Amino acid sequence: MTAPTSAPARGGGRPGQDEPILSIRDLSITFSGLRALDGVSFDVPAGGVTAVIGPNGAGKTTLFNCISGIYRGEGEILLSGESLQGASPHARAALGIARTFQTPTLIEDDTVLANVMLGGFPHTRAGLLSHMVLSRRSRREETELRERCAEALDLMGILPLAGTKAADLPHGLRRRVELARALVAQPRLVLLDEPAAGISHTEALEFADLLTELAERSGATLLLVEHSVALVMRVARRIAVLDFGKLVVAGEPSLVRQDPRVLAAYLGDEDES
Ligand SMILES: Nc1ncnc2c1ncn2[C@@H]1O[C@H](COP(=O)(O)OP(=O)(O)O)[C@@H](O)[C@H]1O
Ligand SMILES: [Mg+2]
Known about the structure:
Layout: E1 22-31, E2 34-44, E3 49-53, H1 60-67, E4 74-79, E5 82-83, H2 89-94, E6 97-100, H3 112-117, H4 128-136, H5 139-155, H6 171-183, E7 189-193, H7 201-218, E8 221-225, H8 229-235, E9 238-243, E10 246-251, H9 253-258, H10 260-265
Parallel strand pairs: 3-8, 3-9, 6-7, 7-8
Antiparallel strand pairs: 1-2, 1-4, 4-5, 9-10
Helix pairs in contact: 5-6, 7-8
Bound molecules: adenosine-5'-diphosphate (ADP) and magnesium ion.
């Protein structure tokens, strides 16, 4: 296992120009007879935004759970050419894989800043444990962490909300806090599970622009599971389409948009969300 790098997203440690940051090779997983992923293979190029789309139950969240090590599938997942086989979720976080969840998980009674600071501990579980670790950190470490948090909040356009209680935030802004928390660990790959779910169409398009800018400014690669096709077409340089656990097609948006199998599997029910 490679040692964790301190700031993989900020230069140094970047993969070779053509090497994908993530390769999914023949990934399969079965839950009591249900093949949730069935021989899925595709590459995520380094930099920018790549999206995974597909109908409900297609296996998108399961794919993220396999990448972050929560589920163990068959097949192989490579991060910058290195197999993640056997690496625990915490080891994967330390290697630079961060994620947000389909349902935002914020500590309601804490401020935005306190929630984002939890992201500074990729080796620990968010929550009580991180609080305990936080209280033992040196003043210098804490100052440095606060600076990184301010930077992440600024990237997400929510720095003025640092002192606001999480419980008082509208849904769209909660999504931004969660993403800022993921960025504090300075990841090289961020997995975003339906970050635009539950926000308005206009907000989603704004969010799309924010993601593009974020990928550029942070240097992190964003892998996005998204139901909003409009958002995906706006941000993604590459799209993988899943249906019933199988990869339908992977490629550039213009190619994917015209693929008859995609139209049949997914684009037709765009209004469902
Ligand atoms: N832990 C699990 N146990 C049993 N079935 C699961 C589990 N996780 C996912 N599934 C099933 O796998 C399929 C894909 O689910 P999921 O990856 O959540 O789909 P998506 O995110 O694309 O909507 C679904 O049929 C779901 O019920
Ligand atoms: Mg899902």
